[in-house]
Design goal:
Number of helices: 1
Structural class: alpha+beta
Number of domains: 1
Largest sheet: 3 strands, antiparallel
Mean pLDDT: 80
Helix content: 25-40%
Distance between the termini: 55 Å
Shape: elongated
Radius of gyration: 19 Å
């Protein structure tokens, strides 16, 4: 009966992973028009957020 130890280990790992996940912070700046967002980081460290709410929107952050 190796099923019980494997199941117990699996549940413990799931608990450890979900407990270690940090909730996202509050939105600051432009927080609207974010349907289907995609985020890209350029080599110079600039982030771009593309979204489709009401057309194609592009936002950037250093």
């Amino acid at each position: 009966m190796k099923l019980f130890p494997v199941a117990t280990l699996g549940l413990a790992l799931i608990g450890a992973v979900t407990g270690a996940y940090v909730n996202p912070g509050a939105c600051s700046g432009v927080c609207v028009n974010t349907h289907d967002p995609s985020i890209i980081r350029r080599a110079d460290g600039t982030y771009f957020r593309f979204s489709t709410g009401g057309g194609i929107a592009v936002h950037s952050a250093p």
